[in-house]
Design a protein that fits this description.
- The complex is a heterodimer of chains A (591) and B (109).
- With 591 residues, chain A is α+β, with helices and mostly antiparallel strands.
- Chain A has three domains: 214 residues, Sulfite Reductase Hemoprotein, domain 2, CATH 3.90.480.20; 159 residues, Sulfite Reductase Hemoprotein, domain 1 (2-Layer Sandwich), CATH 3.30.413; 157 residues, Sulfite Reductase Hemoprotein, domain 1.
- Helices cover 28% and strands 19% of the residues of chain A.
- Chain B has one domain.
- Helix content of chain B is 0%, strand content 51%.
- In chain B, strand 7 and strand 8 form a beta hairpin.
- Classes of the chains: A alpha+beta (591), B mainly beta (109).
- Chains A and B meet through helix 3 and strand 19 of A and strand 3 and strand 5 of B.
- The complex binds protoporphyrin IX containing FE, iron/sulfur cluster (SF4) and zinc ion.
- The site of zinc ion has 7 residues of chain B, from loops.
Chain lengths: 591, 109
């Protein structure tokens, strides 16, 4: 039997949803019929609107997805203005205040506390500068990710930015690909460093070369079926296909149609492409693609560049992110700035937009490590730009513990979450900076924190992976984290192994401190952390993680999901101001 | 009166008549030794995989995946009573109160 979600999608989905959003906005939150709420909230996702968790009814998360994370001059400022006007909550967050935007692990921007009544004005303000929320959530082509410095970078072999845009233009608002069985995540890499993170996407284009009719052609190899969620992580599998940039869009359409027609619409848990690839194997995917979906003869895979992938590859001296000042092909520079856990305050946003416009082109790019990049900075403007005190916080040279920190949305807004994430990760990193020194030569250390197994913070590809759980401590249930070690990408990507389960959250910084000390004692000369982990079995590793209370204090040990907002003074569900009208006044319940 | 029952957002919660009634991350007390070796299993629910109505007094029962916070056993739970329908209204059970096997928590396995 098709799921309710499939039935709702059959009734209304895709661009047809827009008129209904306008109608509900016009008539207010209360005009959404009580017995249609589930259906409408599911559909709203297609337009990038996600109803926030229980206790926050009538407030929405809104996601804006620029392909490849590229925000053209003016677009970043516009998003800051929208956040300023529409993304303020009923109470403030102790670390971040009230008014910020989140840079996500898929090069998108997420706003919170959005009211349906404001959505048409926000859509207009976005469209005015060429941005949109279309398909940012929901069962369709999500934001297309890729090398964040495509078109600017010395390591580039093929223009990933151009393909990301072609794919975006072709498959957003495309009726034939609007309604897929599940989300569809696509990545385009063009460089020899591998920073598109293709291996964890449903569909990945990776740079390759191939001899075709006696000529060497540059293009892409194709992989399918990667993903991290639900304790079932998969790396994308090679289906032995090479495409030229011209063929790439057609082949992408073929694979998306294959997923549309053959993905599991009966069971959403089994619907992702990775499970179809499990079932069929890469050969059958290739055969069906060739026979049913592609009119020309597919080339077999070309020679790829994976051997040189250095991004998050775990080498002591490799490239780990795009933070810092780097030269572009045109002689100007890009400056990668650290945004701790991806959250950027509105006032800071204005400062950054001003600086980018004054000293550079005004373009801002988003990375899959929740950071931002200012591009096209001439040599003689670099110092002047960085002189602005805002870049002390959003630094091109951050401490490794802050540079390496990623955290998902967590119990602040997300229904799936088990624990608080962003504020906790900020506190972790602060404590680690103050109390722990990194072993000799370790300049990069990735710690990713996800509030549940959906893995939005991509914990499995970090040096230290943290995942929300619960345990008992001193007789009381407390928020806890599973600890995994040794994940990363590169030529031979590796998921972290989960070595320590259910560590009370307040003992995690101590565990990381002890782990690093044990690593320092036992490592061979120059051995990287990932190599060190790869050389040991889980039991040995577990013994090196010694959870311990320290001077670190964790204000979120209680069940943050049993609050309407974890940081409110009166945090009980009964104290929630939601649901609220557009002006914030609570709507009394009928009973 | 028909009751609309479903799980949504990847099993994050159970919706009863389009209202979010039971969510993941709470710790439920299960009958002795039915889930793991523990005397009284305290199981944190991580996701719901199904929901249904059962019996004359219309219990709302859920299938879920959970983990015992004491011993770490992770397993599926079938037919966990999470509440009941009284005069068309959903009344949620308190997770902390022991789920009596007589309401069919596990006997149907
Ligand atoms: C209210 C619920 C959720 C929130 C707030 C949320 C938030 C996020 C965010 C902020 C990102 C990165 C942003 C982007 O896509 O542009 C993300 C990515 C991701 N989401 Fe979620 N998410 C939610 C539900 C889910 C669910 C239900 C799943 C799947 C079971 C899931 C799995 C993932 C994964 C695996 C990634 C990142 C890995 C990748 O790049 O593919 N999320 N999510
Ligand atoms: S990992 Fe889980 S808790 Fe974190 S945002 Fe994703 S779904 Fe929510
Ligand atoms: Zn147990």
């Amino acid at each position: 039997m098709p799921s309710d979600v499939e039935e709702w999608k059959d009734e209304v989905y895709g661009t047809d949803i827009r008129d209904h959003i306008e109608r509900f906005a016009e008539n207010g939150w209360e005009s959404i019929p009580d017995d249609e709420k589930d259906a409408w909230f599911e559909r709203f996702k297609w337009y990038g609107l996600y109803h926030q968790r229980a206790g926050q009814e009538s407030y929405f998360m809104m996601r804006i997805g620029p392909p490849g994370g590229v925000l053209e001059p003016g677009q970043f400022r516009r998003i800051v203005e929208i956040a300023d006007e529409y993304a303020r909550g009923p109470v403030s967050n102790p670390e971040f205040g009230n008014g910020w935007l989140d840079v996500t692990t898929r090069q998108a921007i997420q706003l919170h506390w959005i009211r349906i009544e404001d959505v048409p004005d926000i859509f207009e303000a976005l469209e005015d500068v060429g941005l949109s929320t279309v398909q940012a959530c929901g069962d369709s082509w999500r934001n297309i990710v890729g090398c964040p410095v495509a078109g600017k970078d010395k390591h580039e072999h093929v223009d990933a930015g151009a393909l990301a845009e072609d794919l975006h233009d072709t498959f957003k608002r495309n009726d034939a690909h609007s309604n897929l069985p599940r989300k569809w995540k696509v990545s385009v890499t063009g460089c020899d460093e591998g920073c598109g993170q293709g291996d964890i996407n449903d569909l990945a284009f990776e740079p390759a070369e191939k001899e075709v009719d006696g000529e060497t052609v540059t293009g892409y190899n194709v992989r399918v079926g990667g993903g991290l969620a639900r304790n079932e992580p998969r790396f994308a599998k090679n289906i032995d296909v090479f495409v030229t940039p011209e063929q790439a869009v057609e082949v992408a359409g073929g694979i998306s149609a294959l997923f549309r027609d053959h993905g599991d619409r009966e069971n959403r848990y089994n619907a992702r492409m990775k499970f179809l690839v499990d079932e069929w194997g890469p050969e059958k995917v290739r055969n069906v693609l060739q026979e049913e979906y592609i009119d020309f003869e597919l080339e077999t895979a070309g020679e790829d560049l994976r051997h040189s992938y250095s991004y998050n590859a775990g080498d002591a001296d490799g490239k780990h992110d795009h933070v810092g000042v780097h030269e572009q092909t045109d002689g100007t520079n890009y400056i990668g700035l650290n945004v701790l856990v991806g959250r950027l305050g509105i006032d800071d946003g204005y400062e950054i937009a001003d600086a980018a416009e004054e000293h550079a082109s005004g373009e801002v790019r988003l990375t899959q490590r929740q950071n931002i990049i200012l591009t096209d900075v001439p040599d003689d403007e670099v110092d002047a730009l960085l002189d602005n005190p805002v870049f002390d916080e959003y630094s091109p040279d951050p401490h490794p513990f802050q540079r390496g920190s990623i955290a998902c949305t967590g119990s602040e807004f997300c229904s799936l979450s088990i624990v608080e994430t962003k504020n906790r990760q900020v506190r972790f990193s602060r404590w680690l900076v103050d109390n722990v020194s990194l072993p000799e030569g370790v300049e990069n250390f990735h710690i990713h924190l996800s509030g549940c197994t959906a893995s939005c913070a991509q914990p499995q590809i970090a040096d230290v992976s943290l995942r929300g759980m619960k345990t008992r401590k001193d007789g009381e249930p407390v928020e806890a984290l599973d600890i995994g070690l040794g994940g990363g990408l590169g030529e031979n990507p590796q998921f972290a192994s989960w070595v320590s389960d259910r560590v009370p959250a307040d003992e995690v910084p101590g565990a990381i401190e002890n782990l690093l000390a044990n690593f320092d004692d036992a490592r061979k000369d120059g051995e990287s952390f990932r190599e060190f982990v790869a050389a040991r079995d889980d039991e040995e590793l577990a013994a090196l993680v010694e959870p311990e209370e320290t001077s670190y204090e964790d204000p979120f040990l209680h069940n943050t999901k049993r609050t309407w907002y974890p940081y409110a003074e009166d945090d009980g569900f009964d104290d929630s101001p939601a649901p609220a009208r557009a002006d914030g006044t609570p709507i009394p319940s009928d009973d | 009166m028909t009751i609309a029952l479903r799980t949504l957002d990847d099993g994050a919660w159970i919706s009863v008549n389009d209202s979010r009634e039971v969510g993941v991350s709470d710790i439920w007390t299960l009958p002795a030794r039915e889930f793991c070796g523990c005397e009284t299993p305290h199981v944190m629910l991580e996701g719901f995989s199904g929901v249904d109505l059962r019996g004359v007094d219309t219990h709302v029962i859920a299938d879920a995946v959970g983990m015992c916070i004491d011993c770490g056993t992770r397993d599926g739970i079938e037919s966990l009573p999470v509440g009941r329908i009284v005069d068309g209204e959903f009344k949620r059970y308190e997770p902390e109160s022991v789920q009596s096997p007589s309401v069919d928590a596990v006997s149907s396995r």
